[in-house]
Amino acid sequence: MSTNKVIDARGSFCPGPLMELITYMKQASVGDTLELLSTDEGSAADVPEWVAKVGHEMLGSENVDGVWHLKIRKAK
Amino acid sequence: MRILVVGGGTGGTIVANNLARRLSAEIRNRRVRLTMLSATDRHMYQPGLLYVAFGQMTPDQLYRDQRSLLESNIEFHVDPVEKFLLDQKKVVTKSGQTHDYDILVIATGSRIVPETVPGLAEGAETFYSEASAVKLFKKLREFEGGNIALVVGVPHKCPIAPVEFIFSLHDYLKLRGIRDKTNIKYHYPIGRMHTIANVATWAKPEFERMGIEIETLFNVKEVDAENKVVRSEEGTETQYDLLIAIPPHKGMEVIEQNNMGDGGWIPTDRYKLTMNGHDDVYVLGDTTNLPVSKTGSAAHFEAEVVAENIASIVKIGTPVRDYDGKVYCFIEAGHDRATYAMFNYTTPPDLKPASKPMHWFKTAYNQMYWTSVRGLL
Predict the structure, then answer these.
(1) Class at the top of the CATH hierarchy for domain B113-249
(2) Cβ neighbours of residue B234 under 8 Å, at least 6 residues apart?
(3) Interface test mutation site (partner B, options A6, A14, A36, max chain B beta carbons within 10 A)
(4) For the residues A9-20, what does the mean pLDDT come to?
(5) ipTM of the complex
């Protein structure tokens, strides 16, 4: 059964939001959805770039009150 | 009031010593009992492993007797915890002893898990343990030129280590007169060459000046040790003669075995540093799931907050401070220069140019650590 997990990486300069996403992606199962919260403007570009390159699925990306909510499904 | 600290690394030792001094009167009149449980009677200065890998320190210089670092009013047992019975406010140790607590501090740290990447343990050298750092130094001494590749697992302790290692490697190979016979290729998991944007901005031209090849978006998928090839999740591969890995990490097995956190990382309140759902359990250092660096520095600043709050609970019944995400990391930029990065949840690091005095400060800190871990600095 797939699960949804929220990764709160707000205010993270090191390891940073994308590194946090990679950490939790390794722990997730195929089909799981991860929602990454980030206050790093760069996340809007670098997260989709990595997701596309590795072959996962980008489900959505929106900025709510200065926090990026990036939803990704683990595809492999 | 029974305060139990589980873990004798940087975070556990600082929090225990800090509490021992803040609560010395309460411990003396037996209102408070302060106990530490650790897996070992030795304390290692882990950042020193980088120097061991280049023959600049020997392993014996990295250790002190743990008891010698602790205030005398701390009960200390080498007896690691095997069961956390949080609902009953007690833990059970390897020897079968039960310890009750009113406040629990968990600082069990993290461990390397190269075995989670196929071929990595067999094909790559590392410097995240005493034995592996010595082995790597011997490999480097024997090295006569060729292709050296550095790859980075996720997550990893000391996120600045990959950059520091490359700077030191460049200087080491130059000293040996074989830098011009060696290609160095640096691989990094995300789309820039370091996760801290300012570090990437500073280090990228430095790497280019040194002739270091950089490949970003490289997450290690597998190592073919026989054919000396490392492949990435992103579909690329690199041929090597000597492969060096920053290995991936997990939290300690005991955390997972007690269902306290996926990957061994305990879900922790980012400000209060309490375990989610357990206000009587504090978590610090590598053990948390917080998005802060897994470094002794983070553990140090977290320990000061935790100790002040626990002492305040004893004295006035309430905690007094929040953790602001503070981290301070030295960055060695070779054998004779260094800089630093300091940041918290709201302020990014503002990197200064690398300098010799900062390297001397780092060299001094390698000894000052023993004062720091006693909670005096």
Answers:
(1) alpha beta
(2) A53, A54, B217, B218, B219
(3) A14
(4) 95
(5) 0.93
